[in-house]
Amino acid sequence: MTNTSATNPPKIELHLHLEGAAPPAFIRGLAKEKKIDIGGIFDEAGHYKYTDFWDFLRVYEIATQPLKSPQDFHRLTLAVLEESAANGVIYTETFLSPDFCGGRDVGAWREYLHAIREAADIAERQMGITLRGIITPIRHFGPEKARETARCAAETAGDWIVGFGIGGDEKSGHLSDFKWSFDCAREAGLRITAHAGEWGGPESVRSAINDLDVERIGHGVRAIEDLALVDEIAEKGIVLEVCPGSNVALGLYPSFRKHPINQLRDRGVKVTVSTDDPPFFHTTMQNEYARLAEAFDWDDGVFADLANTSLDAAFCDADTKARLRKKLEQAHA
Ligand code: ADE
Ligand code: ZN
Predict the structure, then answer these.
(1) How do residues 140-150 score in pLDDT, each as one tens digit?
(2) Domain ranges of the chain
């Protein structure tokens, strides 16, 4: 069988942080326009520079500093979607942080969201890519700020803001500290995901399932350290938003070959593939596909399954899914 590394099949991406997808040149340009000094976060080649996950979080927050207005997020959204569309992505769910969009004030957040959605509409018309938003508190900012974020989420929940998740430092506090925020988002109709099993072990994945009742898990890969948990994830149909290139770049696994995605898949877990924060990790969706094909001999059939599993797990409405499904079917006919 052939593999897909030389082609560009339609892709569905479920785990992408909007600020984390900002091209470094875009952030540098914005910083220059606004005369903001963010020197020190780039290496000599102009890429983001960090030493480990916790340093990555620090650099990430500095990189958001020039993003100060709804118009900045409009431009960012267009830049990010242009890159995604070039990689064959036809549908993306992106994490949006009211922390970086008006400091969790609901009125300000509405303005940022309006600007992001306007950009998404342009991208849909011009590039054929569909975007939906997942609101995300940042774990190390603490449960109190997460409540404010949840209020922003509840106020803007609907057919575009479709989910609620949590990112940030998995070692900060406990997921159960955020239960109120997740209940608030769920009551507003939002679908639930959470970062777990990246820097936390299997116990963090259990907590996401038992304390937050997640449908999907961001990463979740360290469930592999507890096979009973892997079987539970498979039986419950919980979907993993796996970001292999991110995990390898941050040193969680030494290589794609040593990454557990294939084992998880073989054991019946619904795995999907995303880039997380692509320029930080020197990756793209095309690159993820090529490296997975190479490491595990995945062929066109595996990637077609992957796209269908991802679309099944998307938080968008049924009409949007049906429209996207047709695109996948056409490509695989
Ligand atoms: N925020 C952006 N990328 C992240 C990651 N990989 N883990 C946790 N929080 C994040
Ligand atoms: Zn992430």
Answers:
(1) 999 999 999 99
(2) 21-68, 73-332
